Write the structure tokens for this entry.
Amino acid sequence: MITLFGTPRSRALRVSWLLEELGIDWTFSFINFSKGDNRSDSFLALNPSGKIPVISDDDLVLTESAAICQYLAEKYGEGRFLPSAGTTNAGHYHQWVSFIICELEQPLWTMGKHKFALPDEQRQPCILPVAKWEFDKAAALAEAMMPNTPYLLGDELSVADILLAHTLMWATVFEQTLPPKLTAFRDRLQTRPALAKALAKTEAIAAQDTP
């Protein structure tokens, strides 16, 4: 049985969404940051950084959302959600994943860190305009890279689509303006039933531990 550790709308959502797309059994362990769950001995034994998401799958413990999604698709996808190795689509897939994680997401997380994640004394509000500039630049590049197909690699959903859609959802939460192709992509991906199922499952469990 796979267990996902995290909070409903964090990077753990990428994993829960994919798990629902895969249609496999999994459980959710809510990590309540307000109660210090991420600093407990049991959680730090899984991930010494105290960060989420984390999965356990039998004896394997894995961190980093993109790596987790890649692993799950390889093990349980039965040929879905990933391109064939060594193909042109595989090259495009790896390019997209690297761009999403390294270029598009990072300025958003900079905003998050300096708004709520870092200790008060470490926050630097003056970095926020720089982060917005960086995000706008990356979003413009992504807009130019978007193919005229339903998904990034053609007609089939891939892990890269989930990573991109979730990042764009974060951008919306952080009140960033998206160009039209990215907006349409985000809106289309948000209607997938597996995403709704993932949120319903994780939020119901989290609610049991939240006053």
The CA atoms of residues 143 and 182 lie 6 Å apart. The longest strand covers residues 2-6. The radius of gyration is 17 Å. The chain has a mean pLDDT of 97.
